[in-house]
Design goal:
Length: about 260
């Protein structure tokens, strides 16, 4: 697996498929495979897919200091350079939605088209309170996972599950590791208003409704902050990657492959 050093961080990535370069950037969680692995085959049919594991993910190595948006954006940029595939189409989910917007603002020459999903420009009191509640449960992995899954999925989706044990199995993927805690703490500090305004790439911002994790108005604000962005809203909880996978892939693929 290729590895890139950025500051004190060593971050890894994989490359799959062939065609125009597409990078998929994860949010809070284990890393790229955990977020996008179930969609990788579909995207790789028409694209060379770059899947990074940024600082805070389980595969990355760093000094454990506080994460910054600029650091993660520079990691994305370094991976694009190392892979020799730029400019790329850049997709980011949740925290990754802010990261890819920041990357496009800081490194416009490396981004062809941009797709933030469930992202944000700036955190607010609701998210500060929600993340504070989540972090208050970091001593209890089961409770920590339940808070995250309850807000990440729509009530409709959760009610399709057969048992609470299924929810807990999903929550186990979001254990309170030190990297996960640092990712959540970065969400609390997120403010990319200046960087979003510098984005030059053609952009499609995707929001989710109802979204209890990063409420829908954040995606709308991100679309408004990015010059000439278009906006699409899905009938889904925050985890649209799981709730509406086929529709999401079709929407992204249509956008990045249009003439």
């Amino acid at each position: 697996m290729p590895t890139v050093t950025v500051g004190t961080s060593r971050v890894k990535y994989t490359v799959t498929g062939s065609g125009p370069a597409l990078m998929l950037v994860h949010g809070v969680g284990k890393g790229g495979q955990a977020a996008f692995g179930h969609l990788l085959e579909q995207f790789a049919r028409r694209n060379t897919v770059i899947l990074p594991d940024l600082s805070g993910s389980e595969a990355a190595e760093d000094d454990g200091s506080d994460l910054t948006m600029e650091q993660l954006a520079d990691e994305v940029s370094a991976i694009i350079t190392d892979a020799g595939r730029g400019p790329v189409d850049l997709v980011g989910f949740s925290l990754g939605g802010a990261v890819v917007a920041a990357t496009a603002g800081l490194h416009p020459e490396q981004v062809r088209r941009l797709v933030p999903i469930g992202g944000l420009v700036q955190t607010d009191r609701y998210m500060e309170n929600l993340i504070g509640l989540t972090l208050s449960q970091k001593h209890d992995a089961l409770a920590f996972g339940r808070v995250l899954t309850t807000t990440a999925f729509s009530p409709r989706f959760i009610n399709t599950l057969d048992s609470l044990e299924q929810i807990d199995e999903m929550g186990a993927e979001l254990s309170p590791s030190s990297g996960r805690i640092r990712q959540l703490e970065l969400l609390v500090r997120t403010d990319i208003r200046d960087l979003a305004g510098k984005v030059e790439a053609e952009s499609l911002v995707i929001g989710c409704n109802p979204d209890a994790a990063v409420p829908t108005h954040h995606s709308r604000e991100l679309a408004a902050a990015i010059p000439n962005a278009t906006y699409r809203e899905f009938d889904s909880g925050h985890m649209v990657l799981v709730e509406k996978p086929t529709e999401l892939v079709d929407t992204i693929t249509t956008f990045i492959h249009k003439p």
